[in-house]
Structure formats: structure tokens, C-alpha cells
Amino acid sequence: MTEFSFTLHKTDGQARLGTVRTLHGDIRTPAFMPVGTVGTVKGMYMDQVKEAGSDIILGNTYHLMLRPGAEDVAALGGLHKFTTWDGPILTDSGGFQIMSLSKIRRITEQGATFASHIDGSRHELTPERAMDIQRLLGSDIQMQLDQCLEFPHTDKEAEKAMQLSLRWAARSRKAFGKQPGRGSFGIVQGGVDEALRRASAAGLIDIGFEGYAIGGLAVGEGQKLMLQTLDFTTPELPEDKPRYLMGVGTPDDILESVARGIDMFDCVMPTRSGRHGQAFTRFGKVNLRNAIHATDNRPLDEESSCPALSKYSRAYLHHLMRSGELLGMMLLSWANIAYYQELMQGIRLAIAQDRFEEFRRATKQQWERKQ
Q: Of 63, 106, 164, 180, which sits 20 to 30 A from 147 (CA to CA)?
């Protein structure tokens, strides 16, 4: 039986090159995880996600517990078989969704009770139930239930949520039990306060997890505050465990966070932006809805190995988006996931060759040149 493990192969400054080993395969880090919230990376076939260079995708406890139901997914063979994805899967525990349901939920020491956004039915999500759902789904990395706060918030609110998250972390870890080849991650909370973040990290390390995530960022505080928080949080985390920054972000966010020692990322931005006509490329962002592209016969990036980037003209993509055609949304989602994975591959190669800072500078300069 494969044991869950993390191997740190090399560092270049604070940037880290590693491998996470799981029951369903290896994850090359730094890694970007496409978000498959309800068992689908929106607008993409799973083989496209794999061929783009993705080692792992993300699913969500909250959404899958409501529809189709964790027990139903388990009866159908688990999330891997259900979705036809045979690589590693990380499941988010639902803490972020609970935050977004602030008007229809109540948080107590026991857990969170809330009304379904689908049909208004009442549900309770406790640390134990969150881990039970993830076990039923069969994910390779299972996140503790935590309380995430929107920004801005008071220091008192941040401390209260952090302490509750720590207590929930201990319960989540106990509920996870022993699952060979799978790992559970604790989530560091504490807003943008250094003392709270340090206390949270120390508490989670005492509990002991296979990996550690940094949550409660990219919730309205802006990149500057986010990076400042990483500057004092990441060094508190064990060097021999993977570090995951939740819900981040733009290509620039990823570059800057890798420079601060982060190993794993997820974000809906590539597919969400694609559905709205925005492409991420080596030459920066391109808004395909703009009329300037109506007669442009060039592809987004003729050197890319992804057909969505190299085969279809900007004029055609513009036409599809202006016409409201689903194909346009699908192609741009594919193009964006492919670009994100090309960026991650470039980052990994640069770290391996001791030239990450050079790569970071050159990549930012190329975004600014635009084409």
C-alpha cells in the first residue's frame, strides 16, 4: 500500500520543488489544482484536464454532500470512479462555503447548521461529518473543517474563529483516523495578524497533520496584505510537509507565493474567467470580448501545445463569446487551465535549475509586453 508522503527535492531561495505521493499517484509541486467543485472542472473533459498537465483536482464537501450526496457517490464507487478522474483528488471541507452562507447559517462549538442553497433544506456540518463525507468520497487529501472569515473583520473575531478552528482541527484529525495512502491537512487561520497566525500554526503542528494549508486569505484583503501574511506565516510551517495556499489565485499571486515557500494552489479563476471571455496567456490577460480581436487571425499563443491556445484564432474566439456560444467558454477554460499548468511546469523547471528569480522576472516582463 502506498504511504502518503512529501519529498522536498530542492529549494531555490524559499521556492520549493517537491513531490506529494498519494494512493492515486504523485503530485509534482509547486502544483495548481483545477477546481472541480461538484465533480466537474467546469466546461472541460477530464482527459483535457489531465493532458493540460494537471496532477490533481479539487472537489468540495459542501456541494457534494447536498448533491448528489456523499453516500450516493460512495455507492457508485467513490469520486474517482464517478468522475472518471484517476489521479489524486483534494476535497475542501466546506468551511469557505459556510462563510459565504452567512445569512443562512449558524455556527456553534459543535459545528455549522445551514440552509441548502439548492432547496432550503436544513443541514449540520460538524468536523466529524465533514471528515466522514470526505472518506465516503474517497479523496486523497482531506481538509479539516474550519471557520473562515471575510475581510475586513475585527481582531477579536479573527481570534475567536482561529481558536474554534483549532478545536475543530483536533476533532477533524481524530475523525480522519488511519487511511493508508491518504492524508489530512490542517488549516492555519488568524486573519492578517502575525501573533494569531503563529499561534494557529503551532497548535496545528501539535495536533499533527500530513500537510498544512493557509486559509482565510484572498477573501478581500488584497495581494499586498496577503503576501505580508505569507511572509510571517509560511516560515512557521514544517519544511518536511506540503504547504497549501487555499483559493489562490492569479498567475502573479502564484509566482509571488511560490517565492514565499508555497507548494500547492487552487482557484476557480481559470475556468470562471474563461466562461466570461478572459484568457490568461504568456503575454498577459486577453479579453476576447473586446472588438479589437474581431479581425485578428492570430491564435492566443502559437507556441503552446494546447490546441485551445495555438489552433483557434482570436477572431473566432471573439465571435464565439459575442455570440454566447458554449464552445467559446469551453475553449477559453481549456486554454486557461493549460496556461496555468504551463506556468507551473516553468516554475518547477526554474527551481530545479536554480533560476527561479530569473524566471519570475522574465515572466512578469513578458506579461507586460502583451501581444
A: 180
